[in-house]
Amino acid sequence: MPDIATPLVAWQRQHGRHALPWQGTRDPYRVWLSEIMLQQTQVSTVLGYYERFLQRFPDVAALAAAPQDDVLTLWAGLGYYSRARHLHRCAQQVVAQHGGAFPRSAQALQDLPGIGRSTAAAIAAFCWDERVPILDGNVKRVLTRVLAFEGDLAETRVERALWAQAQDLLPTQAADMPAYTQGLMDLGATLCSQRQPRCADCPLHAHCRARAEDRTAEFPRKTRKLKRSRVALTWLWLRRADGAHWLLPRPARGVWAGLWSLPECADAADAQAAVQGWTGTATPGETFTHVLTHRDMVITPWQFRFTGEAPSVEQLQQRWPGGRWLAPAELDAVGLPAPLSRLLRR
DNA sequence: TAACCGTGGAG
DNA sequence: TCTCCAAGGTT
Fold first, then answer.
1. Count of CB atoms situated within 10 Å of the CB of A130
2. Alpha-carbon gap, residue A335 to A80, rounded angstroms
3. Where are the coiled-coil regions (predicted)?
4. A283: part of which helix (H) or strand (E)?
């Protein structure tokens, strides 16, 4: 087993990132929040969200006490909204079951909602020097290259083996854990990139088997292919004469769970039937495609502008429970899916 | 275990 | 335009 910890720790301290907003603190709340936001999300995307979130929820108690809708509003646009719901539940559990303090071990952290093995390890390493490995996308790339790890990471058994390797590569000194953990992240995010890794500048150059064999492009190996489905849907876009939009909360399960959206219809005929008997102007909008990781959503907004009196809120809510009219200025107060946010602000 | 869950950037 | 993927976790 090569000693990558020593050169990596030295490199991180001299050349790594030190000025990110969630660094320079060992406050588990701040570290935890950053780790959740950074799941499958790049640093540059998270920066603004992180600051706004801390401003509104400065500590775990404030977050726990907030309505879930407020949390989702601040999360809107960041994606993977189950993270926000789990984050909120986690805060409530920390307050209710742990007296407001995060449990101080990676093992115990993993019992909390939204915290898996890698996130738990990152928090424990950064905050308490615990000797536990992380294994995120960046680290998988770094380690499989260093080791020329041939296994297919689509297989559970293989991934388990890489976790074991990650454990064996940890620094001996617990005090080095923060710099080591950060170093792996920094290396994967900067030098050891997917394409065109800058091996000449890499502190692990001398230890890297893939580099020695000129095979960096072969790692990591992963055979699972992404199969993307396609779904077409029609959004009924009701607009009052004063410009207000009719929005309602989405179901607790599925895409954009808990966010606010337009009423969904099967097709244009369905939308047309919904406005039967009302006075106004119908405009079939331009169809656009919104791409998710696993699904292409082909969306047609079907707009209906009331020219006279709209039905009462009670009548509308009978059909769309929880719905309400929102003026353009009020759109910031609710969480909208990214494509709807673009549509309404256009 | 495989499917599901967003969005934006990079090449 | 297209593909890959980013400080993954849950069901």
1. 19
2. 13
3. none
4. strand A280-284
A254 touches strand B (CB under 7 A): yes
pLDDT of residue A18: 97
- Rounded, the Å distance between the CA of A295 and C1' of C11 is 18
- Does the pLDDT of residue A136 top 90, yes or no? yes
Using CB atoms within 10 A of its CB, is residue A49 exposed (0-12), middle (13-18) or buried (19+)? middle
Footprint of strand C on the protein (CB under 7 A): A 17, 20, 22-23, 34-35, 38-43, 80, 82-83, 86, 113-120, 122, 136-138, 141, 182, 185, 188-189, 194, 222, 225-226, 293
Is any atom of nucleic acid chain B found less than 7 Å from the CB of residue A293? yes
Out of A35, A51, A264, A286, the active site residue is A35
3 state DSSP class of A118: helix
Half-sphere exposure (CA, 13 Å, Cβ side) for A219? 26
Q: What is the pLDDT of residues A290-307, one digit of tens each?
A: 999 999 999 999 999 999
The residue-averaged pLDDT of A158-172 equals 98
